[in-house]
Write a structure and sequence with these properties.
Elements lengths: L22 E5 L10 H9 L3 E5 L6 H13 L5 E6 L1 H9 L5 E7 L25 E3 L4 E4 L4 H5 L5 H9 L4 E2 L17 E6 L7 H10 L3 E5 L5 H4 L1 H14 L3
Parallel strand pairs: 1-2, 1-3, 3-4, 4-8, 8-9
Antiparallel strand pairs: 5-6, 6-7
Helix pairs in contact: 1-8, 2-3
Amino acid sequence: MKQSWVREESPMVDTSHANSVKNVVLVHGAFADGSGWRRVHDDLTQRGFSVTIVQNPLTSLADDVAATTRALDRQDGPVILVGHSWGGTVITEAGVHPRVVGLVYVSALAPDKGQTTSDQYVGFAGTPNFVIDVQSDGFGYLNPEKFKAGFAHDLSDEEAAFLRDSQVPINMSVFGTALANAAWRTRPSWAVIATEDQSFDQAMLVHMAERAGAQITRVSASHALYISQASVVADAIQAAAQGSAH
């Protein structure tokens, strides 16, 4: 279990407001946009947090990291950085930003430095309900017939249909891009894992979270847990804010 996130290993981290972490930056994953964070945003703002939602272009890892970095640059103090799904890869790379004091992975990927996102799948079971249709230009969409089963089976038909119809395609080449940083090696981490996730093998999510030394919360939910279990996700973010303020 990793114990190497202590502050002296990351002297550039901004601790000037270490007793009052109030800033949260939320990073969405593939096939989605930032609007899916609405319930988490509303919950957190009611708790007194300042929340910023990144809109990833999903065109490359570098582009998504740049979008996240722009959001981090606008913060006025220490930040809890949160990623869902592919957003976990993004926060793993971008989370070395000096304002980031904690990471929250929401059924999210967490590669190591030098690894690609695709590397995380090796040795784990497939997910037959999570089907990506790759277009001729190299961008992928989730298969519409499988969308609800693979991504959002615990949402209403209407909610799942809106997510399906508004999905943002991702450049599939991003999954083959190696990371230059692994922020979880120098920042404390938390993970919320959906136990009914049909997008990732459960063992894969647990493996990545444990490798990062994350404090793990399990919740009965689909891959869209940031919508269906928004309060549980907000609880984990609040725990991260409190646990990082030391």
